[in-house]
C-alpha cells in the first residue's frame, strides 16, 4: 500500500515524465546521412512500447538509451524490489535521471500499473491508418509526352498508404500494409502481412509473413534500429540480439518473407527460418546459352515507368537458416547459419572495383557471436564467414568508467570478398565489405546540466571503390558535441564534425597537339575534406508553446581546389491545447553546391518522417496540424513548400517541376479500436 501511495505522489509531482520528447532528442543526432530504413525501424519500436516488467537485457539495451551502469541498476532494482508498479517508479532507480526517463518514456509501458492501479487502458488494441500525399505542382513524368520525351509515369501523382495492426503485447500481433507510390499504376503495388504468436510454452516467437532478423552485431542479419556513428557516441556502437520482429515498414527491400520460429528452454534458445521473396533487379540480355542474369538489385521500390516495371520481382530469392544460443541474465553466446539462393545468377558489370563482388546464385554464411556484461562494461563481438572465403569481424566494448565518464572502443574488418545481403554492422561504408577500421567514443557529464560527446574513427579500404580509382585508400572522421541544459524546459547544443576521405578528383588540362590546343580530363585520387556544424536551441515558453532554433553550416574541399560552403537557419514553433496541436517552421538555406547540402529533421504526421536535404538557395516552410476527433480517432494534415531563388525549375528528369517552387500535402487519419 505504501508503494502505491508513493507512486501516486510521484505521478502528481513529476507529471512531465511523459512530456513530449522530439525524435531528434532521442536519436541524438542532426540526422545527416540517416537512412530511410533506420527511421522506419525506429518508428516500429516507438509504436510498440515494451513492458518494463517483462523486458530482458537485450531488448532494453537495444533502445540505446541506457548506459551499462543504468541497465545494471534497472535490473538490480527489479530483482530486489519486485515488479514495477508504474513507469513513475523508475524515478526511484538511483542511476536514472529525469532526462533519461523522458527519452525512455515513449518506448515503455507497465502492465502492472494497468492491473494494480486500475488505469482505463486495454492491453490488446487494433488501429487502422490511412494516408494520402501528393506534390501539388505537376512533374514532367505526369505531363503529356512530346516527340523528344515520350517516357512518362504510369498513373496518378497520389501516394496512398493503408496500414492495420492488432497487437496484444503478451501473445499475438496481426497486421498488414498496402502502399502505392506516386506514379504507380496499381494501388496495391506493395503489400506486406505478418502474424506473430509469442510466449506459448517453449515457443518464444513464431512469425508467419514478413519479418526482420537481428542477431549478433549484424554481420549476417542486421534488421534492427541502429544509427552507427552519431552524436550518441557510446550506445549505438553495440547492436543487441533481438531475434525476429514483424516487418511493418513501407520499404520494399531488406526483409524476409516466410516463417520464423524461436524456441526457448531454460537458458537455451534455438531459431530457424525460411524465406521465399521476389526482389527488384536489373535483368541483362540472355547470353549465348540463353541464361538470363541480373546486374544489380533495385531497392527504390518504384514501379512507375516501363523500365522500372520490368525490374519488378525479376529475381526470386530463397533463404533459410538457423541458430542456437546460450543466454544468462547479462550474457549471450551463439552461432548462426544462413543459406541464400537466387533463381538467376547475379553478374556485376566488368569494373575493377567489382572484382570481389558477389557473383553467382548462392551464398552461405556461418556466424559466431557473443556478449558478456560486467558490472561496469560490456564486451561483444561477431565473426562471420561467407562461402567465398571472405569474412567479417566486429569486436568491441562499451562501459562506464564512473558516473561521469562513458567510453566505447570498436574494431571491425570486412574483407573485399565478404558477402552478406542482410548485414548492417557498424561501418563507414553503406555495406559491410572492403573495410578495416577502429572507432573510439567518449561521453563526459561533468554535471547534470553539461554533457559532451566525441568520437574518432579511422578507416582503411584495401580494394578499389566506386569513384575511387586506387586501392589501399584511407580516411578518418571525428565529432565533438556539447549539450547544455540551463533549465528543465530548455536545451542548447552545438556539434562539429570533420570527415576526410580519398576520392577521385577530375579537372581539365590543356595541351598542344599538331599545333592545336586540346583539352583532356585528368583524374587523380586525392584527399577530400568536409566540415559540418550544427547548433540547436529549444525552450518551452509556456505550458502550450515551445520553440526550437537551428543553425547549420558546412565546407567542402578537395586538396587541389578552393573550399565551397553552405548553411541553413530554421525557426520552429509548436502549440498544443486540448485536442489540437500545430507545429510550424520557417527556414532559409544557401549552398554553393550539392556537396554542401544541409540536412535538418522535420516534424511529420505520426509514423512518418522527413529529413530533406536543403541545397541551392531559397526558403522552406511547413506546418503540421493534428486534431483528436475523439479518444479513438485522430487526424493529421501536413503542408510544406520550398521556394528557390535564382533558378527556374526544381528537380531533374521525370521529377522536374517547370517552376521554382515545390509544394507537398499529406493527410492522415488513425482509428484506434
From TrEMBL:
It comes from the Bacteria. Keywords: Signal. Residues 1-19 form the signal peptide. SUPFAM superfamilies: RuvA domain 2-like. This is Helix-hairpin-helix domain-containing protein.
Amino acid at each position: 500500500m505504501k508503494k502505491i501511495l508513493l507512486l501516486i505522489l510521484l505521478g502528481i509531482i513529476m507529471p512531465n515524465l511523459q512530456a513530449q520528447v522530439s525524435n531528434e532528442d532521442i536519436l541524438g543526432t542532426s540526422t545527416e546521412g540517416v537512412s530511410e530504413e533506420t527511421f522506419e525501424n525506429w518508428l516500429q519500436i516507438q509504436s510498440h512500447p515494451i513492458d518494463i516488467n517483462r523486458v530482458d537485457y537485450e531488448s532494453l539495451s537495444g533502445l540505446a538509451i541506457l548506459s551499462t551502469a543504468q541497465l545494471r541498476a534497472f535490473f538490480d532494482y527489479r530483482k530486489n524490489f519486485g515488479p514495477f508498479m508504474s513507469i513513475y517508479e523508475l524515478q526511484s532507480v538511483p542511476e536514472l535521471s529525469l532526462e533519461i526517463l523522458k527519452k525512455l518514456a515513449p518506448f515503455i509501458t507497465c502492465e502492472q500499473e494497468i492491473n494494480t492501479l486500475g488505469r482505463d487502458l486495454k492491453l490488446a488494441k487494433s488501429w487502422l491508418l490511412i494516408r494520402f500525399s501528393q506534390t501539388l505542382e505537376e512533374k514532367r513524368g505526369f505531363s503529356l509526352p512530346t516527340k523528344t520525351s515520350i517516357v512518362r509515369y504510369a498513373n496518378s501523382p497520389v501516394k496512398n498508404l493503408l496500414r492495420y495492426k492488432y497487437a496484444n503485447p503478451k501473445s499475438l500481433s496481426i497486421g498488414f500494409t498496402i502502399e502505392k507510390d506516386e506514379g504507380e499504376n496499381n494501388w496495391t503495388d506493395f503489400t506486406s502481412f505478418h502474424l506473430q504468436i509469442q510466449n506459448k510454452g517453449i515457443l518464444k516467437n513464431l512469425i508467419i509473413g514478413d519479418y526482420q532478423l537481428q542477431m549478433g552485431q549484424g554481420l549476417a542479419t542486421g534488421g534492427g534500429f541502429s544509427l552507427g556513428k552519431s552524436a550518441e557516441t557510446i550506445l549505438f556502437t553495440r547492436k543487441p540480439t533481438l531475434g525476429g520482429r514483424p516487418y511493418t515498414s513501407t520499404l520494399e527491400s531488406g526483409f524476409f518473407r516466410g516463417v520464423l520460429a524461436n524456441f526457448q528452454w531454460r537458458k537455451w534458445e534455438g531459431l530457424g527460418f525460411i524465406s521465399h521473396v521476389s526482389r527488384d533487379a536489373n535483368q541483362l540480355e540472355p547470353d549465348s546459352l540463353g541464361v538470363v542474369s541480373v546486374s544489380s538489385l533495385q531497392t527504390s521500390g518504384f514501379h512507375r515507368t516501363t523500365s522500372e516495371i520490368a525490374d519488378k520481382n525479376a529475381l526470386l530469392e530463397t533463404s533459410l537458416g538457423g541458430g542456437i544460443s546460450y543466454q544468462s541474465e547479462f550474457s549471450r553466446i551463439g552461432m548462426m547459419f544462413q543459406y541464400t539462393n537466387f533463381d538467376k545468377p547475379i553478374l556485376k558489370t566488368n569494373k575493377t572495383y567489382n572484382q570481389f563482388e558477389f557473383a553467382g546464385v548462392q551464398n552461405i554464411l556461418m556466424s559466431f557471436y557473443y556478449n558478456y556484461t560486467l558490472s561496469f562494461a560490456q564486451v561483444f563481438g561477431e565473426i562471420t564467414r561467407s562461402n567465398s572465403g571472405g569474412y567479417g569481424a566486429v569486436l568491441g566494448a562499451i562501459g562506464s568508467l564512473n558516473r561521469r565518464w562513458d567510453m566505447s572502443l570498436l574494431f571491425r574488418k570486412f574483407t573485399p570478398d565478404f558477402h552478406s545481403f542482410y548485414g548492417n554492422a557498424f561501418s563507414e561504408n553503406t555495406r559491410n565489405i572492403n573495410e578495416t577500421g577502429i572507432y573510439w567514443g567518449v561521453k563526459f557529464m561533468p554535471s547534470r546540466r553539461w554533457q559532451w560527446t566525441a568520437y574518432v574513427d579511422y578507416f582503411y579500404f584495401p580494394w578499389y571503390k566506386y569513384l575511387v580509382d586506387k586501392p589501399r585508400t584511407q580516411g578518418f572522421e571525428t565529432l565533438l558535441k556539447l549539450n547544455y541544459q540551463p533549465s528543465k524546459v530548455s536545451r542548447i547544443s552545438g556539434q562539429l564534425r570533420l570527415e576526410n576521405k580519398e576520392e577521385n578528383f577530375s579537372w581539365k588540362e590543356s595541351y598542344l597537339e599538331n599545333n592545336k590546343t586540346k583539352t583532356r580530363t585528368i583524374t587523380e585520387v586525392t584527399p577530400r575534406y568536409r566540415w559540418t556544424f550544427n547548433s540547436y536551441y529549444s525552450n518551452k515558453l509556456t505550458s502550450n508553446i515551445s520553440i526550437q532554433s537551428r543553425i547549420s553550416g558546412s565546407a567542402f574541399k578537395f586538396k587541389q581546389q578552393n573550399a565551397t560552403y553552405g548553411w541553413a537557419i530554421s525557426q520552429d514553433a509548436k502549440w498544443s491545447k486540448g485536442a489540437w496541436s500545430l507545429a510550424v517552421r520557417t527556414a532559409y538555406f544557401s549552398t554553393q553546391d550539392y556537396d554542401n547540402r544541409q540536412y535538418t529533421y522535420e516534424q511529420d504526421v505520426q509514423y512518418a518522417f522527413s529529413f530533406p536535404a536543403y541545397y541551392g538557395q531559397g526558403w522552406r516552410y511547413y506546418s503540421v496540424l493534428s486534431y483528436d476527433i475523439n479518444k479513438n480517432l485522430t487526424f493529421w494534415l501536413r503542408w510544406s513548400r520550398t521556394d528557390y531563388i535564382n533558378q527556374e525549375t526544381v528537380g531533374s528528369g521525370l521529377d522536374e517541376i517547370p517552376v521554382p517552387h515545390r509544394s507537398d500535402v499529406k493527410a492522415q487519419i488513425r482509428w484506434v479500436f
